[in-house]
From TrEMBL:
Keywords: Lyase, Metal-binding, Zinc
Molecular functions per Gene Ontology: fructose-bisphosphate aldolase activity; zinc ion binding
Cofactor: Zn(2+)
Active site: D80 (proton donor)
Lineage: Bacteria, Thermotogati, Deinococcota, Deinococci, Deinococcales
Protein residues bound to Zn(2+) 2: D102, E132
Enzymatic class: lyase
Enzyme Commission number: 4.1.2.13
Protein's name according to its UniProt entry: Class II fructose-1,6-bisphosphate aldolase
Comment on bound cofactor: Binds 2 Zn(2+) ions per subunit. One is catalytic and the other provides a structural contribution.
Positions contributing to Zn(2+) 1 binding: H81, H178, H208
Gene3D superfamilies xrefs: Aldolase class I
Length: 305
């Protein structure tokens, strides 16, 4: 069933488990996400970035909505990193049940004002809202922040921000970053900061940049002819702990990108005569489903629907 993000995330925060918010860009990714959720009786969030909307538009949103409506587990369709009020309203018009307004690169007061505007409009239509405070390290789609200049979310500011905006859930900067290169060794994730923000707040918290970049996937990627450097992601144990402290929405895109490319590369490499798209995208869908299954197990959302 198609529900709002709040319907899914409030019980997750209360029950101390995380719900995967997976980015989609096509039918196969959407199927891997929603069919796996159905199989595991897990709630799930399917998200589309503005880039995904540019690529797949209403066609893709309709695929998500259709699968969500026919699923018996709760599914939300969420706008990832909405860059403006207009972008959020456009997504709501397309049938999204949850939107993110990401004004985190603006000064605090402007972030509050822009977020408030979105919250007021979205709530009239029964849609829930994610906002962001603090900056992720690494590369965001709208801003490049040097690792050391990136600033993490201040707990007291988070409390003020939530009070002043009425946002339903809040993305916090805790050391994670987008993409396949999250640092060296075991990337830093500030558990004490999550715990402090968790103590001071009651709304669900959101972790961006939460792909695990599993070694087995990068190994297969290379083995099948792909080129990737010292890729590293967030450890499973770190995500488990974060969910104990208040993280309820866990964003994953990179892992599915890698998994689909591994599937496609393996078919093309191992069967050079193959040109049936169902074979080529079929394995990609299977590898992505395994990633989704693993993540749901780690986050503890299995059986919660
Ligand atoms: O935060 C994300 C989408 O908003 C995705 O993060 P990853 O790059 O770690 O998958
Ligand atoms: O956080 C960003 C997501 O990984 C989406 O990336 P994208 O804008 O390239 O679709
Ligand atoms: Zn951002
Ligand atoms: Zn993100």
């Amino acid at each position: 069933m198609l529900v709002t993000g709040k319907d899914i995330l409030v019980p997750a925060r209360a029950g101390k488990y995380g719900v995967g918010a997976f980015n989609t860009n096509n039918m196969e990714i959407t199927q891997a996400i929603i069919h796996t959720a159905e199989k595991l009786r897990s709630p799930v969030i399917v998200q589309m970035s503005e880039g995904a909307i540019k690529y797949g538009g209403q066609d893709l949103a309709n695929i998500v909505k259709d699968l969500a409506t026919r699923a018996t587990v709760p599914v939300a369709l969420h706008l990832d990193h909405g860059s403006s009020y207009e972008s959020c309203l456009k997504a709501i018009k397309m049938g999204f049940t949850s939107v993110m307004i990401d004004a985190s690169h603006h000064p605090f007061e402007e972030n509050v004002a822009e977020t408030r505007r979105v919250v007021e409009a979205a709530h009239i239509m029964g849609i829930s809202v994610e906002a962001e405070l603090g900056r992720l390290g690494g590369i965001e789609e709208h801003i490049v922040v040097d690792e050391k200049d990136a600033f993490l979310t201040d707990p007291e500011e988070a409390v003020q921000f939530i009070e002043q905006t009425g946002t339903d859930y809040l993305a916090i900067a805790i050391g994670t970053s987008h993409g396949a290169y999250k640092g060296k060794g075991r990337p830093y994730i500030d558990q004490a900061r999550i715990a402090r923000i968790g103590e001071l707040t009651t709304i669900p918290l959101v972790a961006h940049g939460s792909s695990g970049v599993p070694a087995e996937i990068t190994r297969r990627f290379r083995e099948a002819g792909g080129e990737i450097g010292d890729a590293v992601g967030i450890a499973d144990d770190d995500l488990r702990e974060a969910c104990q402290h208040g993280i309820a929405k866990v964003n994953v895109d990179t892992d599915l990108r890698l998994a689909s490319t591994v599937g496609i590369r393996e078919v093309l490499k191992n069967t050079p005569k193959e040109f049936d798209p169902r074979k080529i995208f079929g394995l990609a869908r299977e590898v992505m489903s395994q990633i989704v299954e693993h993540k749901m197990g780690v986050l503890g959302s299995v059986g919660k629907a």
